[in-house]
């Protein structure tokens, strides 16, 4: 085996692949070959580095230099300057916006400085399509240790001691889940990995599967041993082709190496894993729906109890764990439960991966210890709000979560604190909004989502959410009656109390949290027929600024209801009574003479 | 005749796939994925075929097909334009992009143009939030899309496949 003096790690996550990172890999390989460096330098396509805002990313190892926004054409310069001459390519280094300094080492970048990567430990460091790289990074050591030294009961105890809670949303203690399933005797039990990541704006599970699939497989085998299951399923979205491909490769390699399959490590323990594809139904992220879907049925939730740990897949004891939860597990066994529980806050241990997106400078995946404040995440790691605008709100927890305001920016983030301030952890989506976002419209956006995705089984969710959506639509169109705000709240509470599954019960959260924190904005829509953020089209008022209008008649010609009048070369006027707020005049005007409020 | 033969071949492949399954119980969604991959969509006749082959009621097959948004009962266009309507894209202007594309192609999301060339879909999060707003055409992702670029994107995808 040859020893390489240098590794060029190129991000192969979906975000960077979309910006031609595979072409970068190809070009690098070509030029390395042309320069006869194939024995010295290796190019590796890795998983996500997390810094998606500045992708595609190329990291030079062992120099620890991170190049950002690399284009396929930049390859020649990287090879000639850095690889051959050992000089950094200054222009491709990350620029610190406040000091305008170029930073080469990623540990010095504010984006990475405050992060602690446990679940993402291998993402961006190893080649996800090569099992040997995972093994070299201590992979499959945990399962080896467990099978040779520990009893299933000890494994469950370690999980309980670690304090790990489910990362998919609810935050249920993982060890307890395993404990229940291990106590229920059955001829067959199942381990399911929930990779049906459906929250719009959350992509950590996909990044883990793309960047470090083996850690999930290893953890599933550990779970299988702990509860006495020999079969595992990964339920994954069909919309994640790259993750599916890498999982297939990983399962194939693990079987080949005897790390999955029959008699693993000669311990007599069998464990096999199969993939099952989702088919585009958000509700299938709910564990009972997911089980229905694996059984080939419509993905409708069932009543709990019985819980899956008692009667799950094919009525056998089943545990359903989320991808990020699983990715944490091998490390817990290598470094110990005490180590893990020393990280985080009192009741939420370890780290959490957040998908930071929206109006923030550094969009990407960040993993931080539980208990960090939102301010640190958004302003220190995220680099603050885009275009110097004012922070308005951050939405966490996806369609089941709520909006948090500036007043709570200093709250330490963990499961319990988020619920206390009217939101929830969810899967870790974190969408930052600025002064240009209308909170009523955001609530409407989430309701439209839940309305689309409601499975239709229970009336509260199927009809209730549609009614909520209609009320919100009336508010954004200025057609709401004064008592509608009370109705909105009342109906939300009814849905919360009566819906069958977790999706339904949490679906009014975006409405309730915006009602609480942004009541004035709702009032402006209802009573003044005004959208303070200027988003709601029907509430906007178009006027022509007399001084700027040269009377070219462009706007009058495109106006559908013909409500703009004025003679040629004289300022025009919009008849507000007839205006349909279509915005055609604004688009047509070449002199910025149309004002929208 | 030729098309019938092609169709026949697809049915043979589908039957072989179903016969090759280790367990038929619970395999419906897996089978439907394969069927849609082969035929492009799932019309009633094909759903019936699957039902008979798996020995389950056709109503159950139809129930599953209509439940999941990934399965379609109508043929899709040659180019499927997916506008990401995930939250990150939404707050960065995806709604306007969708409107613009719908106006340009004169069809709504979920529909296919009469010439069978384009379908528009609103998709929930591609996971490329760093590139928001995102438009995906037949699996190729276009990031940080501006309204003015849409004509170019449509033109390139047509010319690249010509």
Question: What's this model, at a glance?
Answer:
Chain A has 597 residues and is α/β, with parallel strands linked by helices. Helix content of chain A is 38%, strand content 16%. In chain A, strands 9-10-8-7-11 form a five-stranded mixed β-sheet. In chain A, strands 13-12-16-14-15 form a five-stranded mixed β-sheet.
Low-confidence stretches of chain A: none
Principal-axis shape of chain B equals: elongated
The average pLDDT value of chain A, as a whole number, equals 94
Overall CATH architecture of the largest domain in chain B: 3-Layer(aba) Sandwich
- Total DSSP helices of chain B: 7
Count the helices of chain A. How many? 25
Classification by helices and strands of chain B: alpha+beta
Helix content of chain B: 40-55%
**How much of the residues of chain B is beta strand, in percent?**
5-15%
Topology:
The complex is a heterodimer of chains A (597) and B (162).
Chain A: E1 6-11, H1 14-18, H2 21-34, E2 41-46, E3 58-61, E4 65-67, H3 75-84, E5 94-96, E6 101-103, H4 110-113, H5 131-136, H6 141-149, H7 152-162, H8 174-183, E7 190-195, H9 204-211, H10 213-227, E8 231-236, H11 241-256, E9 261-264, E10 269-277, H12 287-294, E11 318-322, H13 323-335, H14 337-341, E12 351-358, E13 364-369, H15 374-381, E14 391-396, E15 402-405, H16 415-420, E16 429-434, H17 439-453, H18 459-462, H19 464-476, H20 484-498, H21 502-506, H22 509-517, H23 519-527, E17 542-544, H24 554-558, E18 564-565, E19 573-574, H25 584-588, E20 594-596
Helix pairs in contact in A: 6-10, 6-13, 7-8, 7-10, 9-11, 10-13, 17-19, 19-20, 20-22
Chain B: H1 2-19, H2 28-39, H3 44-54, H4 58-67, E1 79-84, H5 87-90, H6 94-105, E2 118-123, E3 135-137, E4 140-142, H7 150-160
Parallel strand pairs in B: 1-2
Antiparallel strand pairs in B: 1-3, 3-4
What attributes does this structure have?
heterodimer, A: 597 residues, alpha/beta, Glutaredoxin, Rossmann fold, Ubiquitin-like (UB roll), 5 domains, five-stranded mixed sheet, 16% strand, B: 162 residues, alpha+beta, 2 domains, four-stranded mixed sheet, 7 helices
């Amino acid at each position: 085996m040859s020893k390489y003096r240098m590794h060029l790690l190129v991000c192969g996550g979906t975000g960077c692949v979309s910006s031609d990172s595979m072409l970068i890999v190809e070009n690098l390989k070509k030029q390395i070959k042309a320069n006869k460096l194939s024995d010295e330098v290796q190019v590796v396509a890795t998983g996500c580095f997390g810094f998606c805002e500045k992708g595609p990313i190329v990291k030079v190892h062992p120099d620890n230099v991170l190049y950002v926004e690399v284009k396929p054409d930049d390859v020649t310069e990287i090879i000639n300057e850095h690889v051959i001459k050992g000089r950094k390519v200054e222009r491709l280094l990350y620029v610190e916006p406040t000091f305008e300094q170029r930073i080469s080492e990623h540990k010095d970048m504010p984006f990475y400085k405050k992060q602690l990567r446990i679940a993402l430990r291998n993402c961006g460091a190893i080649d996800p399509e090569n099992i040997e790289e995972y093994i070299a990074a201590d992979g499959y050591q945990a399962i080896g240790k467990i099978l040779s030294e520990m009893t299933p009961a000890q494994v469950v105890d370690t999980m309980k001691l670690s304090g790990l809670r489910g990362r998919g949303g609810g935050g249920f203690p993982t060890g307890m889940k395993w404990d229940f399933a291990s106590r229920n005797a059955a001829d067959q039990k199942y381990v399911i990995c929930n990779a049906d990541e459906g929250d719009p704006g959350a992509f950590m599970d996909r990044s883990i599967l793309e960047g470090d699939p083996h850690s999930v497989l290893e953890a599933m085998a550990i779970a299988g041993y702990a509860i006495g299951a020999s079969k595992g399923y990964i339920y994954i979205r069909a919309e994640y082709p790259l993750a599916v491909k890498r999982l297939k490769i990983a399962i194939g390699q693990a079987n080949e190496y005897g790390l999955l399959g029959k008699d693993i490590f000669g311990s007599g323990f069998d464990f096999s894993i199969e993939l099952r594809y989702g088919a585009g139904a958000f509700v299938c992220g709910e564990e009972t729906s997911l089980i229905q879907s694996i059984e080939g049925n419509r993905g409708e939730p069932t009543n709990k109890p019985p819980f899956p740990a008692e009667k799950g897949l094919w009525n056998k004891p089943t545990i359903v764990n989320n991808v990020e939860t699983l990715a944490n597990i091998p490390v817990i066994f290598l470094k110990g439960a005490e180590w893990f529980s020393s990280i985080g806050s009192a009741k939420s241990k370890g780290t959490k991966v957040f998908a930071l997106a929206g109006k923030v400078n550094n969009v990407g995946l960040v993993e931080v210890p539980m208990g960090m404040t939102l301010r640190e995440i958004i302003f220190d790691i995220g680099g603050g709000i885009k275009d110097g605008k004012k922070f308005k709100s951050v939405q966490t927890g996806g369609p089941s979560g709520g909006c948090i305001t500036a007043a709570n920016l200093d709250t330490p983030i963990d499961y319990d604190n988020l619920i206390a301030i009217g939101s929830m952890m969810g899967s870790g989506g974190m969408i930052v909004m600025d002064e240009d976002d209308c909170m009523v419209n955001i609530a409407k956006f989430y309701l439209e989502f839940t309305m689309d995705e409601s499975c239709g089984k229970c009336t509260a969710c199927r009809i209730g959410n549609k009614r909520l959506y209609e009320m919100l639509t009336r508010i954004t169109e200025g057609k709401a009656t004064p008592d509608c705000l009370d109705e909105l709240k009342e109906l939300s509470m009814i849905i919360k109390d009566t819906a069958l599954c977790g999706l339904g019960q949490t679906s009014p959260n975006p409405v309730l949290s915006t009602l609480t924190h942004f009541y004035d904005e709702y009032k402006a829509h209802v009573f003044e027929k005004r959208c303070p953020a200027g988003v709601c089209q029907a509430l906007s008022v178009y006027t022509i600024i007399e001084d700027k209008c040269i009377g070219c008649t462009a706007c009058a010609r495109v106006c559908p209801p013909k409500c703009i009048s004025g003679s040629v070369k004289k300022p025009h006027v919009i008849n507000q009574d007839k205006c349909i707020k279509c915005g055609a005049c604004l688009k047509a005007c070449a002199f910025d003479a149309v004002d929208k409020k | 005749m030729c098309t019938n033969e092609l169709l026949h071949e697809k049915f043979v492949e589908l039957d072989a796939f179903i016969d090759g399954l280790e367990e038929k119980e619970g395999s419906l969604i897996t089978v439907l994925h394969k069927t849609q991959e082969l035929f492009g969509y799932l019309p009633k006749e094909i759903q019936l075929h699957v039902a008979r082959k798996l020995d389950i009621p056709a109503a159950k097959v139809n129930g599953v097909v209509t439940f999941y948004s990934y399965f379609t009962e109508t043929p899709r266009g040659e180019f499927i334009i997916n506008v990401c309507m995930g939250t990150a894209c939404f707050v960065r202007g995806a709604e306007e992009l969708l409107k613009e594309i719908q106006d340009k192609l004169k069809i709504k999301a979920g529909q296919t143009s009469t010439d069978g060339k384009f379908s528009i879909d609103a998709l929930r999060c591609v996971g490329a939030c760093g590139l928001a707003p995102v438009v995906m055409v037949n699996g190729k992702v276009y990031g940080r899309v501006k309204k003015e670029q849409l004509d170019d994107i449509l033109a390139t995808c047509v010319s690249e496949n010509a």
